[in-house]
Amino acid sequence: MVVPAPQNVAAALAVLVPAIYFAAVLADALASTPLSLEPILANAWATSALVDYATALPFVVPYVFYRAPSSRVGVLLALGCVLLGNVFTVPVFVVFLLRGQSLKAALLPGAAAAPGATASSSLLLPVSAAFPARSDWLSRKSFVTLTATVLMFYTVIVANALATESPGEGYEYIISDKWSYVTFVDVLVGIQLVALYIFVREANTSVLAAVLWVLALELMGNGVTCAYILYLAWKHPAVGGVAELLLGSVQEGLNQLD
């Protein structure tokens, strides 16, 4: 049995508390207002929030898929993240956090598998090693192209929102419409997950770089998530698979031990 480190428990609580608030906001909207995309699409900034949510999916979907113990479970987890949002995704990440002996082992099981690194539970082993046939379902080139395309689309949507009305006016609209606000809170909750992942990964080499990435993410949304994925692809050109790119590689773990 893996006993989570105190920092893992603290991180799990840090992402779980906002998710509980989001669940309350979602429950209130479901109980009082018919689900509709129309009011969201009627405002440029509310639309931007919806696109912001979708912009995180190039990270979230393959990450949870490759972390799953089988393809079937991976597909179910990915669908849950897409369809239910962070009210589902956060508990999945909480499980990852509580099953790791360190934050690195919990979020970067590939790098943590390097000799001399902190051990992790069997569920957290690199999926590319445990399920080699499944690790090739999405090529690195296709993944990078998809991520770059999503980033460009996100940039266009945000530019249109900036040209249409001020962020302050957009925020006033969002908080006045329940489903726009649900979308907005969903995005904010998800950003905390990505921020934790980026900080854990970058702080091993540079705390300053980690802080700057997190600040950019908090200020500019999930466009930064896509930018970070592209940065990882540039930084690790020798990593061939998407699983190793997102979960960390043994070589990355060895480099951090030097």
Descriptive report:
The chain has helices spanning 6-32, 38-41, 44-55, 57-67, 71-84, 86-98, 103-107, 109-112, 127-130, 140-164, 167-176, 178-203, 207-220, 223-235, 242-247, 250-257. The protein is 76% helix and 0% strand. The protein is globular and about 45 Å long. It is mostly helical.
Give a quick summary of the entry:
The chain is an all-alpha fold and 258 residues long. The protein contains 16 helices and no strands.
Count of distinct strands:
0
- Helix content range of the residues, please? over 70%
Enumerate the spans where pLDDT stays under 50 for 5 or more consecutive residues: 114-133
Biggest sheet overview = none
Structural class: mainly alpha
**On the 0-100 scale, what is the average pLDDT?**
88
Topology:
Blueprint: H1 6-32, H2 38-41, H3 44-55, H4 57-67, H5 71-84, H6 86-98, H7 103-107, H8 109-112, H9 127-130, H10 140-164, H11 167-176, H12 178-203, H13 207-220, H14 223-235, H15 242-247, H16 250-257
Helix pairs in contact: 1-6, 1-12, 3-10, 3-12, 4-5, 5-6, 6-12, 10-14, 11-12, 12-13, 13-14
